[in-house]
Specification:
Keywords: Membrane, Transmembrane, Transmembrane helix. This protein has 484 residues and is mainly alpha-helical. 69% of the residues lie in helices and 3% in strands. The protein starts with 36 loop residues before the first helix and ends in an 8-residue tail after the last helix.
């Protein structure tokens, strides 16, 4: 029987005998243990299927249509999710409910994206990516239109903007990545990182553009019509983009959950590292408006920095695509977490003027985008494209905790706008744990001294996440210069 290799699935393509890349175990670690031959055969079959399909990927052609379609779908799905705070601000100002209640509409939407990962993966495999993407687009557009009639009923809004939107976003997200990063229906192999980067950039650009557009629509037409216009625009562009999605090769009908992946130290380390990583990655864009206000800057500066963060995130997604194809996807994920930790521990805590804040926003935003866009490529490269639909869904399910801890803690203020009436503007403080730390050291207006402990908390979590990914990287290849 062939010996078990410690290389990745991609490196195995050139080896003389296939071996279970995801197990990544040395034979001397299993002394006295006999692995069932049928298990090894099943694992090799998956990796062989991955290598065979990857070797025939056209590296372009209709694949670029898929990338463009995915860009549009992620623009409306994740971009709208990132812009929820704008709609929430208007709903609070209209007196629909208090912050503690409305905050969980956005949290529910974000959490469902993660919690339904495995279930929606099954739906996509049963229906195909085109049908699933069109269903997701219909859910997103429909949720906005339905929400326009529920702006006076917070319970109904939980269902329309929370549940329906969350289901739609997850279906669209999974369908968009399915044909590039997941299952054996792939158009890219060597350029998979670049394709992912361009596609995921849609969420960053969408988040910035939709935020400004919604704010303008709400001021001119009100919340209800802003919802309706958003819904109509989503349906008119996302449905055609979804229709253009198609699989090159039908997906193999694999199991609901592949529990044996948890026997792999590499998978466990990636699972834990990415789960921890979602907690600090959401803190900067939510703390920046509060922090700049505490330093005496205008609210426009805070809003501009948040928009800059979204644009930097989009740029980071594209740049990380180039990087993952050159230095390896696991190395790129690790680099993104190192940059996140360094900026949170060294740059942000010393930023008392605008210039270092801009540096922090640009670097941290790019690292943030790189983490989310490179993870699907990393899972695909290490565990094989034929099983990555299941593997990625399992990993994303571990992000529920980080997504639930996105929006529950707020600070608000009132001031007069150009139309001479009081408007309540709400600034998101970020994850509750970081918010509680902030409150304990002086609150939102406490200046740099109050914010530093929360910054160090977020930076420490990013560092811990990076350590887990580093462990996974050395499980795959101990050479510091290896492309992993």
């Amino acid at each position: 029987m062939a010996s078990i290799s410690t290389t990745t699935a991609i490196e195995l393509a050139t080896s003389s005998s296939p071996s279970p890349a995801w197990s990544l175990r040395h034979s001397n670690l299993n002394k006295g243990k006999t692995q069932p031959s049928e298990t090894i055969t099943a694992i090799d079959h998956v990796l062989e299927a991955s290598r065979e399909v990857d070797s025939t990927a056209p590296e372009g052609g209709y694949g670029w249509v898929i990338v463009a379609s995915g860009f549009v779908l992620l623009w409306w799905s994740l971009g709208t999710t990132y812009a929820w705070g704008v709609m929430q601000t208007a709903l609070v100002a209209d007196g629909l409910a208090d912050l503690a209640v409305l905050s969980f509409v956005g949290s529910l939407q974000a959490a469902l994206i993660s919690a339904l990962a495995i279930v929606n993966s099954l739906v996509v495999r049963k229906t195909g990516v085109r049908a699933a993407a069109m269903l997701g687009a219909a859910c997103m557009g429909g949720s906005h239109i339905l929400s326009s009639f529920t702006i006076k009923n917070v319970g109904a809004l939980f269902f329309t903007s929370g549940v329906v939107m969350g289901i739609g976003v997850r279906l669209v997200f999974l369908s968009a990545t399915q044909v590039i990063s997941t299952v054996p229906s792939q158009y890219f192999s060597a350029r998979r990182g670049l394709a992912n980067g361009f596609m995921f950039a849609g969420s960053g650009f969408g988040g910035a553009a939709i935020s400004f557009a919604l704010d303008s629509l709400i001021q001119k037409l009100g919340v209800a019509w802003a919802y309706r216009i958003l819904g109509l625009m989503t349906l008119s562009t996302a449905l055609p983009a979804a229709w253009l999605m198609k699989e090159r090769i039908p997906a193999e009908r694999r199991g609901f959950i592949e529990w044996k992946l948890f026997e792999s130290p590499t998978f466990v380390l990636i699972f834990l590292g990415s789960a921890i990583g979602t907690f600090p990655l959401f803190v900067p864009p939510f703390f920046i408006p509060l922090y700049t206000k505490s330093l005496g800057f205008s609210t426009n500066v805070g809003a501009g920095l948040v928009a800059g963060f979204s644009l930097s995130s989009a740029a980071g997604r594209i740049l990380s695509g180039f990087a993952s194809d050159k230095i390896g996807s696991i190395n790129t994920v690790l680099a993104s977490l190192v940059l996140t930790a360094v900026t949170m521990l060294a740059i942000w805590p010393t930023s008392t003027t605008l210039a270092p804040l801009i540096v922090f926003v640009v670097i941290n935003g790019a690292a943030n985008g790189a983490f989310f866009s490179t993870m699907p490529t990393a899972i695909s490269k290490v565990f094989g494209s034929a099983r990555v639909a299941v593997a990625m869904s399992m990993v994303v399910t571990g992000w529920v905790g980080g997504y639930l801890m996105v929006r529950p803690h707020f600070h608000s203020s009132y001031f007069s706008d150009d139309r001479h009436h009081l408007t309540r503007f709400v600034y998101l403080q970020g994850a509750p744990i970081a918010g509680y730390i902030l409150d304990s050291f002086g609150g939102a207006d406490g200046g740099l001294h109050a914010y530093r402990p929360a910054m160090f908390y977020a930076g420490a979590l990013a560092l811990a996440s990076g350590i887990f990914i580093l462990g996974a990287r050395f499980c795959i290849n101990k050479s510091l210069l290896a492309v992993v």
